[in-house]
Specification:
The chain is of the alpha/beta class. The protein contains 19 helices and 35 strands. It has three domains: 163 residues, Glutaconate Coenzyme A-transferase (3-Layer(aba) Sandwich); 236 residues, Acetyl-CoA hydrolase/transferase C-terminal domain (Glutaconate Coenzyme A-transferase); 169 residues, Gcn5-related N-acetyltransferase (GNAT) (Aminopeptidase). β18 and β19 form a beta hairpin. The termini are far apart. The model has no long low-confidence stretch (mean pLDDT 93).
């Protein structure tokens, strides 16, 4: 664009929007930076921008004042940290309203595809807030790029709405598929357990969403209503896993607002009628999201406190990213029939030196998502279900999925706030023999169940399990008829050092309110032996649960080098006697009402 055109457009103190994500108009930003000596105090408004972002460098501090609606891109974070740039916290769904009211734009610099026969250009890979910026700015300047894919939906701008056009064939910024590591794979595997057939997905950016998608190959009829469309989603579309058949909003189509990835991905979305791109003011609107059933939002965080408050845009006093669309989709998912909001992140930062799960947020960190919004938190150590939980219960749930080396410290710190009673002394421990996921899927006639270790967050569950017993069960299991199980007693039974003793349970395979239906445990004895015991809910008897628990217990005992295990049961408890005898136990003693059985390992 000629110099006189920039002179005509830009005045000192103008406000300019620069196109976002992979849709940064590279040619226009280069010309803008070249024009910098002739302008002063020009405000640059942007969200995440890929590329060099020369305009954010310190040498242009007198020329350009950067205002980030989402912090990201080269040089931007440094400018924020040094006080040369500003950050405006805002929901992406409401950025369009800002452009109409509090943040009117003088110029929008955007990138579009070449016009079609009717004169319509597409915003291609970046509709998000760019489409709205072009709509509300006093002047719109477009780089027409033949490399920009033409995307369908509400992505089009007519040439009559563009004030200046510059033809320039620059490469669309590509983002290679992230390489997953062991931590992200485990997180992805855990999240996949929460995604059922027919779910409608929203996923953020980075390794974790890609890891989740890699575990969804056996799902059916998945849909997508998301901010960012990715290579991983493309692969599942090609395989027919994502078909959007069950969606209510734009059935049969992916709904997205921007796209970042490889050139293969950009070619895939080009003139693809099955993908519908729309502005963030529509895609991110919670009421639109909620019109789909079974929406699952998957987002990340920088840290979380033990009450469930999420810090996602700042590390202490340092602003790091932005609110973005997290709250839009968390709210939409919770409003959706059958929806779930999931926050996922590695349990530690700084090479394992810092826990992301904290008793209190780091001083200065801002809450993006409140303690009342999150259904599930996932780390490489498991899934913490927070919805409907007391502060005590959610603190224990979150400690369970923290890195093991920080668990005891977190427990001690949270006890100081009186969120957790002093009698809770044992932090959760692992049962390595159960594998990385610390759970085993159990399929029975009545459905699917999960075998996993008992842990301190099961305090209330075990108490409810106890109070579900009949008098006959209490007499058979405990040899007497106990009337009560206090929370303190229940806590002692679930707060187990699993490296020495062993306490397992079988729970219903459902994400929320899963009840304990069977418990098995052993207590280690000094002579390399252990005493075992089991109890099964009355409604689940005859399903083989005691046998499953006993088999798992024997296997773990052998791996730990025990020489024998034994049990004491009532002589009239025929079903339990049969279970022991079928698994090789021999009667080694008979007393008035009880029999002792043992098994050599």
């Amino acid at each position: 664009m000629a110099l006189q055109h920039w002179t005509q457009l830009i005045e000192h103190g103008s406000r300019i929007y620069i196109g976002s994500n992979a849709g940064v108009p590279t040619k226009l930003t280069e010309e803008l930076v070249a024009y910098a000596p002739k302008c002063h105090d020009v405000e640059i408004v942007h969200i995440l921008t890929h590329g060099e972002n020369e305009w954010a460098k310190a040498e242009y501090a007198d020329n350009f004042k950067v205002n980030s609606l989402f912090i990201g891109g080269k040089n931007v974070r440094e400018a924020i940290r040094e006080g040369r740039a500003d950050y405006t916290p805002v929901f992406l769904s409401e950025v369009s309203k800002l452009f109409r009211t509090n943040l009117p734009l003088d110029i929008a610099l955007i990138m579009v595809s070449p016009p079609d026969e009717q004169g319509y250009c597409s915003c291609g890979v970046s509709i998000d807030v760019t489409h709205s910026a072009a709509r509300y700015a006093r002047y719109t300047v477009a780089q027409v790029n033949p490399n920009m894919p033409c995307t369908y939906g509400n992505s089009f701008i007519h040439v009559d709405e563009i004030d200046f056009m510059v033809e320039a064939a620059t490469p669309i910024h590509e983002v290679p598929r992230p390489e997953s590591d062991q931590v992200t794979r485990q997180i992805g595997q855990y999240i996949s357990l929460l995604i059922e057939d027919g779910a409608c997905l929203q996923m953020g950016i980075g390794k974790i969403p890609d890891a989740v998608l890699s575990y969804l190959g056996d799902r059916k009829n998945l849909g997508v209503h998301t901010e960012m469309f990715s290579d991983g989603m493309m692969e599942l579309m090609k395989r027919g896993v994502i078909n959007n058949r069950l969606k209510s909003v734009h059935p049969g189509k992916v709904v997205s607002s921007f796209c970042m990835g490889t050139r293969e991905l950009y070619d895939f979305i080009d003139h693809n009628p099955h993908i519908s791109f729309h502005p963030s003011s529509y895609v991110n609107r919670p009421s639109v999201i909620a019109n789909n059933a079974n929406v699952i939002s998957i987002n990340s965080a920088l840290e979380i406190d033990l009450s469930g408050q999420i810090a996602a845009d700042s590390i202490g006093f340092d602003f790091y990213s932005g609110i973005g669309g997290q709250m839009d989709f968390v709210t939409g998912a919770r409003m959706s029939e059958g929806g779930k909001s999931i926050i996922a992140f590695p349990s530690t930062a700084k090479g394992g030196e810092v826990s992301r799960i904290k008793s209190v947020l780091t001083q200065g960190a801002g809450v993006v998502t409140s303690r009342g919004h999150v259904d599930y938190v996932v780390t490489e150590y498991g899934i913490a279900a927070l919805d409907g939980k007391t502060v005590r219960e959610r603190a224990l749930e979150l400690i369970r999925i923290a890195h093991p080396k920080f668990r005891q410290q977190l427990l001690e710190e949270v006890r100081q706030h009186f969120w957790v009673p002093d009698y809770v002394e044992q932090s959760p421990t692992e049962v390595p023999e159960l594998g990385e996921l610390q759970q085993v899927k159990v399929t029975l006639k009545r459905g699917n169940y999960i075998l996993r270790p008992l842990n301190p967050s099961d305090e209330r569950r075990l108490q409810e399990f106890f109070y579900s017993h009949t008098e006959d069960t209490l007499r058979m299991r405990y040899s007497h008829d106990p009337k009560y199980m206090s929370r303190q007693k229940s806590s002692a039974l679930v707060s187990v050092n699993q490296q020495e003793d062993l306490a397992l349970c079988i729970i219903e395979d459902k994400p929320k309110d899963a009840e304990i239906v069977a418990v098995g445990r052993y207590y280690l004895l000094p002579n390399r032996s252990a005493e075992v015991g089991f109890v099964t809910h009355e409604k689940m008897r005859g399903q083989g649960m005691a046998t499953i628990l006993l088999t798992q217990t024997i296997e773990i005992a052998r791996k730990r080098g025990l020489e024998s295990i034994y049990a004491v049961t009532r002589s009239d408890n025929k079903p339990m006697l049969e279970v022991f005898e079928e698994n090789g136990f021999k009667v080694t003693g008979t007393y008035r009402e009880e029999k002792e059985l043992s098994l050599k390992l």
